[in-house]
Amino acid sequence: INSCGRLLYVQGDLPGAEALYLEAVGGRRDQLGDRHPDTLVSIHNLGRLLRAKGDLNGAEALLREAVLARRDVFGGRHPDTLASIEFLGTVLKAKGDLDGGEALLCEAVEGQREALGDRHPSTLHSINSLGHLLCDKGDIEGAEPLYREVLKGNRETLGDRHPDTLASIACLGMLLDDKGDLDGAEPLYREALDGTRETLGDRHMYTLGSIGNYADLLCRRDPVHPNRARTAMGDAPEVAREVLGADHP
């Protein structure tokens, strides 16, 4: 049941996945107990799903249970414990508790570096989450080295055209843009645009977003001569209306 729920979750069928996860949690609590590793997997998965649905209070309660139990059963440096810590940190961030989220994400990053290594996908994911949180706190100087580390790690382990790498390129570009470093941001925006066009096509929402970022930067760099920005934009506004709808932000 849990595996079928995970499949539906990956496919984007959150209501279907939730029903199966709830059944798995209930059955495993009854048959195996609250602290059995399989029960904790189901609790963790249901917490992740509720976070994806936007039920942050429900997600927090389940992930706190998973963290507490996994600390007791596996220890604080077990990969499963660290995964629950990281996801709980992102839930607190989403709820606006940036200090609480930062403490958990720092713990997750430190533990995953030690247990899994600096280039493990889980470590890079947690580093990226911590970078996002620091940006939300306004600590751009603290976030930048984290974004750079994630980008370097993704390039080395996944390649330049992997979706995670392209997302890292775009994130670093936006951070540099926010800092006012337009010279640093422009080549990253350009690389993200080229990569999304190549891998996703001209009509994908991520490609359209990359076009918008790049064209906006070009316009701000040379507002008197906006031809480069117009060329970069092309027919993206018309495509966006067609693909996303006229009311999409």
TrEMBL record:
It comes from the Eukaryota. Signal peptide: none annotated. InterPro entries: NLR-like (IPR053137), TPR-like_helical_dom_sf (IPR011990). Pfam families: TPR_10. PANTHER family: AAA+ ATPASE DOMAIN-CONTAINING PROTEIN-RELATED, ATP/GTP-BINDING PROTEIN-RELATED. This is Kinesin light chain. It comes from Emiliania huxleyi (Coccolithophore). The lineage of its organism: Eukaryota, Haptista, Haptophyta, Prymnesiophyceae, Isochrysidales.
